[in-house]
C-alpha cells in the first residue's frame, strides 16, 4: 500500500472514530453519568449493548456496542409485534373455509385464540355448529412443532406449547382440583395420573401427571397431531370430523375472529411465547395458504425492513431460541418505525408500564406515573429491555439495553439498568 493510500485509510478511520463518539461529545454529561454507572459493576465480565435515541431530533443520546449482535430473548417479540401490525387486519383471521355439496371444508390459519384458557373465544365453535358435514384440511401447516434452538426438555412446561395450524385450548391441558382432579379440555379426562413424577407429561404421548398435594392449577402442553385436533373438535361439536389432504382450487372465505389488539397486548405484557409463535404463523396466512413463520419473517425483512443496517438472525416469534441475534440499533430502528406508524396511545398500550403492569410491574416505577414502557427479554444469563422512556422534560426516547452472558443475578443487572434509565429520565 502506497503512502497516499495509507494516509487516506487513516483519514477514514479517524472519521469513523469521530462519528462514533459524536453522541458522547454532544451529550458529555449524560455519557459520563452512564459510563460511571456501568463501571460500578463487574460489567467487564459480561457483554452490554445500549442505544438511546431521540426520534424528534433524530439524535443519538448514548451508544455503547449498539451495532453488536446480542441474544435478545423475548425482545424478539417486538419484531413479532411489528409483523403482526403490518400483516394482520383489526380482527384476526380465525379460519379459511369453502362450502359446497353440503360439506364445509376448513383449514386453520394459526389463530391462537380458539377456546384459549384466557380468551375462551368460541367464534370457531359457533361457526362450525352451523354445519353437519365438516372436513378438515391440515396440510397447509408447514412448520416444525418446536422452533429451532428451543430447549427440548421444556416440552412439558406451560411456556413452551407446540406450534400448530389449528390450535385449540392454547395447545395446553389445564389441570386443577375441585372435588376431584379435573382437566380442560375434557377430551384428556382419561389421560391423567396422580402419581408423583419428575415430568408433567410423557415425552411422546398425552399422558399427564398431576401432583394432588400441590393443589395448583397447572397448564401442560399437549402433543399436537391431526387426530388430536379431530378428536378435540368432535368432542366439542358432538359430530364427526373428516380429514382430507387438500382443498378444492376455488376461492376460500375467511372467518373473522377476535380483535388483534387484545391478543398483541397479552403477548407483550405477559411475554406469552405461544401467542408470539402463532401470531407469526397467523401473519403468514395473509400472504398465502401455506402456514410458515419463515414466510412472514422473510416478507417483513425483504420488504418493510429491507434497509435495516444490521439485519438480524431471526428464527422464531417468541425469542425462546438462542439462535436469535439482534443489535440494539436494530431494536431501536423497529421501535422507531412503530413510534411513527402507530398512534401513541395505542402503541404504548402494547408495552408493559414500569411499576404498573406486565413483566415491569415490580421494576422501574415512576414518581407521578410510569416513565418506562418496554419489553423485557430473559434467558439464563441474559436480560434485555427495549422500548420507550418519557423524560422529566416530556420528551420521548427510544432505547434498547441488552446484557448477555452475565454471572450476576438478574436483580443486580436490573438495578444497574434502573440507574441508567433514571439518569436518562432526569438528565434529558
From TrEMBL:
The keyword Nucleotidyltransferase does not apply. Keywords: Carboxypeptidase, Hydrolase, Protease. GO terms for molecular function: serine-type carboxypeptidase activity. PROSITE patterns: PROKAR_LIPOPROTEIN. GO terms for biological process: peptidoglycan metabolic process; proteolysis. Belongs to the peptidase S13 family. This is D-alanyl-D-alanine carboxypeptidase.
Amino acid at each position: 500500500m502506497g503512502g497516499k493510500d495509507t494516509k487516506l485509510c487513516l483519514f477514514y478511520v479517524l472519521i469513523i472514530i469521530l462519528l462514533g463518539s459524536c453522541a458522547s461529545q454532544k451529550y458529555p454529561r449524560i455519557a459520563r453519568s452512564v459510563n460511571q454507572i456501568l463501571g460500578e459493576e463487574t460489567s467487564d465480565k459480561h457483554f452490554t449493548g445500549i442505544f438511546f435515541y431521540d426520534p424528534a431530533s433524530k439524535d443519538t443520546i448514548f451508544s455503547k456496542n449498539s451495532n453488536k449482535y446480542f441474544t435478545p430473548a423475548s425482545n424478539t417479540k417486538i419484531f413479532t409485534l411489528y409483523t403482526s401490525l403490518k400483516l394482520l387486519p383489526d380482527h384476526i383471521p380465525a379460519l379459511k373455509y369453502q362450502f359446497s355439496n353440503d360439506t364445509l371444508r376448513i383449514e386453520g390459519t394459526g389463530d391462537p385464540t380458539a377456546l384459549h384458557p384466557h380468551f375462551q373465544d368460541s367464534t370457531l365453535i359457533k361457526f362450525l355448529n352451523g354445519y353437519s358435514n365438516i372436513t378438515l384440511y391440515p396440510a397447509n401447516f408447514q412448520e416444525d412443532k418446536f422452533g429451532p434452538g428451543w430447549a427440548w426438555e421444556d416440552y412439558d412446561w406451560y411456556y413452551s406449547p407446540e406450534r400448530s395450524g389449528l390450535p385449540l385450548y392454547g395447545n395446553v391441558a389445564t389441570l386443577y382440583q375441585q372435588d376431584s382432579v379435573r382437566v380442560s379440555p375434557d377430551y384428556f379426562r382419561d389421560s391423567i395420573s396422580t402419581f408423583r413424577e419428575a415430568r408433567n407429561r410423557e415425552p411422546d404421548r398425552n399422558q399427564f401427571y398431576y401432583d394432588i398435594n400441590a393443589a395448583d392449577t397447572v397448564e401442560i402442553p399437549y402433543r399436537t397431531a391431526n387426530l388430536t385436533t379431530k378428536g378435540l373438535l368432535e368432542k366439542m361439536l358432538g359430530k364427526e370430523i373428516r380429514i382430507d389432504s387438500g382443498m378444492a382450487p376455488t376461492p376460500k372465505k375467511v372467518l373473522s375472529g377476535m380483535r388483534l389488539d387484545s391478543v398483541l397486548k397479552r403477548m407483550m405484557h405477559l411475554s406469552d411465547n405461544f401467542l408470539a409463535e402463532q401470531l407469526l404463523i397467523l401473519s403468514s396466512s395473509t400472504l398465502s395458504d401455506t402456514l410458515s413463520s419463515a414466510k412472514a419473517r422473510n416478507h417483513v425483512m425483504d420488504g418493510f425492513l429491507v434497509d435495516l443496517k444490521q439485519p438480524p438472525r431471526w428464527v422464531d416469534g417468541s425469542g425462546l431460541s438462542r439462535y436469535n441475534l439482534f443489535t440494539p440499533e436494530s431494536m431501536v430502528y423497529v421501535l422507531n418505525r412503530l413510534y411513527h406508524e402507530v398512534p401513541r396511545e395505542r402503541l404504548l398500550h402494547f408495552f408493559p408500564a414500569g411499576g404498573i403492569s406486565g413483566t415491569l410491574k415490580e421494576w422501574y416505577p415512576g414518581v407521578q406515573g410510569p416513565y418506562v414502557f418496554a419489553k423485557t427479554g430473559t434467558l439464563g444469563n441474559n436480560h434485555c429491555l427495549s422500548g420507550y422512556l418519557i423524560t422529566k422534560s416530556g420528551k420521548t426516547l427510544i432505547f434498547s439495553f441488552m446484557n448477555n452472558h452475565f454471572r450476576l443475578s438478574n436483580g443486580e443487572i436490573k438495578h444497574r439498568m434502573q440507574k441508567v434509565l433514571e439518569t436518562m429520565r432526569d438528565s434529558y
